[in-house]
Design goal:
The chain has 169 residues and is an alpha/beta fold. The protein has six helices and five strands; from the N terminus they run αβαβαααβββα.
Length: 169
């Protein structure tokens, strides 16, 4: 049985812009994903020729995976939580450190339906972007809807932020 993953038209256009920006710079990208579980990497690699600019993806759902694969310090997670601006920045920087990519995007959040709190409700998602030689930045997305909608919104926002960083570089 064949399984086909297709990105919607808006996501596909974002991936095409990202591909053009990375190719123009002769650069690779990497992803570090938690709540999106590899959806950003899947969207990127759905485009033929993505091996020209997509280097690797890290799916780091557990805190242990974030530490082992991306180098996040347990003290950072203890102080700020895995769903935080600090964790998103560290994840993006870790993806750069552990790859040959020049650009990286990270996503960490609470897609639900459970796991939220008063301070971090379901739909709280931090998205980090990083470029070699510059500190990472992170953006808070407060998404709504069910789990699928929150994850889809996170993918689009992550691609938009990475496209903007690449095109500005």
């Amino acid at each position: 049985m064949a399984v086909h993953l297709t990105a919607d038209a808006a996501t596909r256009r974002l991936v095409e812009r990202l591909a053009d920006a990375l190719r123009a710079r002769g650069a690779f990208m990497a992803t570090a994903e938690s709540c999106t579980g590899g959806l950003i990497a899947a969207a990127c690699t759905s485009l033929a020729g993505s091996s020209d600019w997509f280097e690797r993806g890290f799916v780091t759902y557990s805190n242990e995976a974030k530490a082992e694969m991306l180098g996040l310090q347990s003290a950072l997670i203890a102080a700020h939580g895995a769903v935080s601006e600090e964790a998103a920045c560290a994840m993006a920087e870790g993806a750069l450190t552990h790859s040959r990519a020049r650009f990286a995007v990270s996503v960490t959040g609470i897609a639900g339906p459970s796991g939220g709190s008063v301070g971090k409700p379901v739909g709280t998602v931090w998205i980090g972007v990083a470029k070699t030689g510059q500190p990472a930045t992170a953006t808070l997305l407060q998404a709504s809807g069910d789990r699928a909608a929150i994850r889809a919104a996170s993918v689009v926002c992550a691609l938009e932020l990475l496209v903007a960083l690449c095109e500005a570089s």
